[in-house]
Amino acid sequence: MKKDGDGELVERGTFRFDPAAAAEKLAEYQLPDARDFLVPWLRAAGASGAKRVSAGVVDGALTFSFDGDAPSPAALSDLVSGLLGAEGGEAERHLAYGALALRRLEPGSVAAAREDGRTVIRVRWAGGGPAAAALKRLRAAYGMSETELTIDGEPVPDPAKAPEPVKAWRGTRTRVALFEDVLSPGDGRMRVYVRGALAEEVPVSLGGRYTAYVANDRFALSLSQSAVIKDARFGKVVRRLERLRRRLSHLPPSPATRARSAATVAAAAAAAAALAGLGYWAAARVLLP
């Protein structure tokens, strides 16, 4: 067997299941939407110390690859082994969570390999399957990451790295970036990330339309991998954010936020007027300066 990085295949495996032996165990770990199967794989990459993750359709296969530490040989041989056996760690568990969801999408084939220092997983369906939807959901989940992500060769921006946060801090484990956000519902929201992937969005009282991006790789996830366990670690972050409420509620909106709000309201009103028969340009003359 060759060492990593010499350009030759070093490990190869296929996707295997033993439903009779493992069905009861595996039933506990189900993403609500199977098309999110790439999201746990993104966490696996983060847990492996990856710096670059690539996803896209290559030669008819949905291909997901990342650098960093190699998964265990057992995980490469059988992607669900991280939940069924003692071998492996956090990265192997996330690979297994994604593999379980993928099974529900009935791919024609799935193969995992270690090639040129990267873990590469290739998924094929007859006719393309849900590849486009899975990539779209991966893009939406990416954020608060130390890992670069490209999809079909294009870099994906990290929303938490936008300029001019209202507040940002970085502790030993927790990172927070707080932004004005005209799309934030109600009194504010918190988007919680684990290993560079969105785990949950929850309302939080911030005194206005703000979004707090919060990352802590020690946050515990539910069995479905779709929520954060509301334990003491999580509660500490929420309390710190809510202590900002009084200060944030007295801050005037920034010029950029006022402009976005005005444009959003004008566009919505123009659309409503157009539907009512006024026509876009008539509505625009009334609503826009």
Describe this structure in words.
34% of the residues lie in helices and 24% in strands. It is α+β, with helices and mostly antiparallel strands. Strands 1-4-5-3-2-6-7 form a seven-stranded mixed β-sheet. It has a five-stranded mixed β-sheet with strand order 8-9-12-10-11. The longest helix has 21 residues, at 255-275. The termini are far apart.
Give the number of helices.
10
Q: What is the N-to-C order of secondary-structure elements (H for helix, E for strand)?
A: EHHEEHHHEEHEEEEEEEHHHH
Shape descriptor: globular
CATH class of the largest domain: Alpha Beta
Query: What is the average per-residue confidence, as pLDDT, rounded to a whole number?
Result: 83
Beta-strand content bin: 15-25%
Question: What is the secondary structure topology, with strand pairs?
Answer:
Elements: E1 9-14, H1 19-26, H2 38-47, E2 52-58, E3 61-66, H3 73-77, H4 81-84, H5 90-104, E4 109-115, E5 118-124, H6 131-141, E6 148-151, E7 154-155, E8 167-170, E9 174-180, E10 189-194, E11 197-203, E12 210-216, H7 232-242, H8 245-249, H9 255-275, H10 280-287
Parallel strand pairs: 2-6, 10-12
Antiparallel strand pairs: 1-4, 2-3, 3-5, 4-5, 6-7, 8-9, 9-12, 10-11
Helix pairs in contact: 2-5, 9-10
